[in-house]
Amino acid sequence: MKVEFAPINIPLKRRIQTIAVLQWIFSFLLLAEFCCGFFVILILGNFWFLAVLYLLWLYLDWETPCTGGRRSQWVRNWTVWKYFREYFPIHLIKTSDLNPNHNYLLGFHPHGVLVAGAFGNFCTGPSFKNLFPGLTPYLHIMPIWFGCPFFREYIMSAGMVSASKESVSYVLNKEGGGHASIIVIGGAEESLNAHPGSLTLNILKRKGFIKMALKHGAHLVPVFSFGENELFKQVANPKGSWLRNVQEKLQKIMGFALPLFHARGVFQYSFGLIPYRQPIHTVVGSPIPVKRNLNPTTEEIEQLHALYLQKLRKLFEEHKRNYGIPEHKSLIFE
């Protein structure tokens, strides 16, 4: 394989952007394991008492990821995130006002490999606050990550909370409105479809978010992130292949998927784990008004789910020309 090296005279700003994305990749793929290893070292070493104190803290603080988390504006506004967003770059596009007197459930599509658009737009910087004043975003992620020592503090500081039913209910139940739950509807399973050009969404069987919106009277907002699937290439894993079967079995056992992806490196463009410089445009659609219904029937859930799919498809069709999607390509719902 011929290696294409990066030019020597690349501007300093672009190199800083690459370093910013490199630390994000490290945080996403290895920081949790590093934190667990450090905790084990504390237990086995001379500082075991610090580990005991932290376990006590963990016990007392266990419910925090399900009760709104513990965000830090200082962490969310780190300069490194500015360079991270500029690398791709990442943009948030508003199509309609969201009244801060209501609570909202934003359905994010597609998952992509590492959900870069969701993190960049809802966990870093002022974009969301500037476009939707009065609303506080909460990005819901898998509960397993909040059981990891130290790592849980870091992800909560960025505004991430658990994706458990209790956590979503806590956010959507807040009096006076002004809160937005962001849920990546396709989940880990959808990351296995994250190939460049793919428009397949795992959504037909996912109706829990619809039920939550009905129970709390939270307005539904479809969100489509153009460019999310273009950041990495993934080893071919068509449905029915041995690799896909193994990935799906591991996903059911562990709760998260293991896509075999690759992109570019730091000093060359031929291989590595750093995403390609592909723009991400995360388009926030118009809200679907939802009336509170504590005991929705199956028919009511199906009806709202069908309306949501209709609005999501419309959002995609209205904006796909702006972001390089061929006219003949449409979303595929599975």
From TrEMBL:
It comes from the Eukaryota. Its EC number is 2.3.1.-. It catalyses: a 3-acyl-sn-glycerol + an acyl-CoA = a 1,3-diacyl-sn-glycerol + CoA; a 2-acylglycerol + an acyl-CoA = a 1,2-diacyl-sn-glycerol + CoA; a 1-acylglycerol + an acyl-CoA = a 1,2-diacylglycerol + CoA; a 2-acylglycerol + an acyl-CoA = a 1,2-diacylglycerol + CoA. GO terms for molecular function: 2-acylglycerol O-acyltransferase activity; diacylglycerol O-acyltransferase activity. CDD domains: LPLAT_MGAT-like. Pathway: Glycerolipid metabolism; triacylglycerol biosynthesis; Lipid metabolism. Keywords: Acyltransferase, Endoplasmic reticulum, Glycerol metabolism, Glycoprotein, Lipid biosynthesis, Lipid metabolism, Membrane, Transferase, Transmembrane, Transmembrane helix. The chain crosses the membrane at residues 21-41. It is a multi-pass membrane protein. One of its GO terms (biological process) is triglyceride biosynthetic process. InterPro entries: DAGAT. GO terms for cellular component: endoplasmic reticulum membrane. It is found in: Endoplasmic reticulum membrane. Belongs to the diacylglycerol acyltransferase family. This is Acyltransferase. It comes from Buteo japonicus.
